[in-house]
Amino acid sequence: MEIPLQHIGMIELVSFFVAEAYNQTGSKFSVNWHGSKGYLSHLEISAEGFQKEDTNRVFRNDLFTKNGKFRKKTLEVSYCHDSGVHLKIK
């Protein structure tokens, strides 16, 4: 699935994504924003089960411009039952 970055903060899109991901894979998904020391750190998308590699996180600098706006790029989300969620900025 591909998601325009500027839409990733919309709750309607997140709701659609977790429902569609479950329907396609049979695994429960979650979308989490993480922060540290008052700053947003990264976005993480996880599926139930073991995540073999650190491929399910996108860091703040890849999501936002220096002005704090979403980049005009797309987040590609793929899933494999063996290795978990893979995120890629295109």
Which terms would index this structure?
21% helix; single chain; 3-stranded antiparallel sheet; alpha+beta; 90 residues
Contiguous uncertain segments of 5+ residues = none
What count of domains describes the coordinates? 1
Mean pLDDT: 92
Helical amount:
10-25%
Instruction: Quote the distance from N terminus to C terminus.
Output: 12 Å
Strand content: 35-45%
Overall form: globular
**Helix count, DSSP H or I runs of 4 or more residues:** 2
Category by helix and strand content: alpha+beta
Could you give a short account of the major beta sheet? 3 strands, antiparallel
> What is the spatial order of strands in the main beta sheet?
1-5-6
Q: Any idea what the radius of gyration is?
A: 13 Å
Count of β-strands: 6
The SSE order reads EHEEEHEE
How would you portray this structure in words?
The chain has 90 residues and is an alpha+beta fold. It has one domain (10-89). The protein is built from 2 helices and 6 strands. Strand 5 and strand 6 form a beta hairpin. The longest helix is centred in the first third of the chain and has 15 residues, at 11-25.
Write the layout of secondary structure elements.
Layout: E1 2-4, H1 11-25, E2 29-36, E3 39-47, E4 57-59, H2 60-63, E5 74-80, E6 84-89
Antiparallel strand pairs: 1-5, 2-3, 3-4, 5-6
What's this, in brief?
The protein is an alpha+beta fold and 90 residues long. The chain has helices spanning 11-25, 60-63; strands at residues 2-4, 29-36, 39-47, 57-59, 74-80, 84-89.
